[in-house]
Amino acid sequence: MARTRRLILVVVLLTGALVVLVLASLAVGSRLVPVGTVLEAVTRFDPGSNDQLVIRFSRLPRTLIGVLAGAGLGLAGALTQSLTRNALAEPGTLGVNAGAAVGVMIGLIVTGGASITVYVWFAFAGAALASVLVHRLGRTRRSGVDPARLVLAGAALSIVLSALTRALILSTDATVYESFRGWTTGSLQGRGWESLPVVGLCLAVGLLISLALAGPLDSVSLGTDMAAALGVNIRLTWSLANAAIVVLAGGATAACGPIAFIGLASPHIARAVSGPNHRLLLPVS
Known about the structure:
76% of the residues lie in helices and 1% in strands. By secondary structure, it is mainly α.
């Protein structure tokens, strides 16, 4: 009971901190905007106010995309660490984000800088291929997936994919280069309302899959042999969890660029708050 009360208190505090940061993100920028004006821009929009125009069409979508993308990366990191039983694992260290970045670059080259609703599919494909390749490289004949070898394979693949991305940048035209330069820095600058549905849908799909796997992941964290003895379908659990990771990391990377560290740090913070139970760990992450 005491732990439940502590969990509720911490979640409430974290949610309150998030609300404060969202308001700060809307009010603070190249010029300060009063909080009252911020609230009016959301509840009673006046198109004649320059401040409200900036908030409504620049800061508000950028902030919401940041919240949803951060949630997606945190959830993807929790899934990655649970699957690999490695505290250092996350989509960035396993090459998934780098694969999505290569996919976006190819998508920009093929489509000539189309919108996110087009090149996000290239991000999914790149993330999926990188995930499959890392897991193949991280396997051993005797014990299956080795956590340490998996992280090393991911780090090596990330370097290779980053080099490939730079080679593609050097060989493309100026229009695609300008589109990619603003994206590759891992920034929310210039992100508009068109990116929000993509990130939101990716987060919703990834969260639904993750919550459905909460029970099996509790067993997998004990080891594959123990999970199999408890009746868990290891192959199905791995496949669905990796699909969720690809959707979450691919959508966030397509919208915001390759952002590191969130997927690594968020699960550790959530685990300290909620414990190892995935029914709590995943949504808190």
